Amino acid sequence: MENDGLIVRGIEPADRRRVWVRLTPAGDAVFERHATMESDGEASLLSAPDAIERQTLAGLLRKLLLAADQRDLGDHAKQDGKA
């Protein structure tokens, strides 16, 4: 990406172990094009179900995410010796 001119990297002067990375204007343009394509794809995908089906889908996805978060919290507690 750096060779393609999409990002620039540098060393943090106060702590030379740290490296910063920033998008160049060209990198920002590529990101924006990608984000637009993703947004268009999502809109196309979500045009199939009707409004009630989209609400149901959103509720089911929310439930899955909450369950995954709870599982991850439990896994972290086990790793930390707290469970």
TrEMBL record:
Per UniProt, residues of the HTH marR-type domain are 1-66
Protein name per Swiss-Prot or TrEMBL: HTH marR-type domain-containing protein
Q: Which domain of life is it from?
A: Bacteria
Q: Which Gene3D superfamilies match?
A: Winged helix-like DNA-binding domain superfamily/Winged helix DNA-binding domain
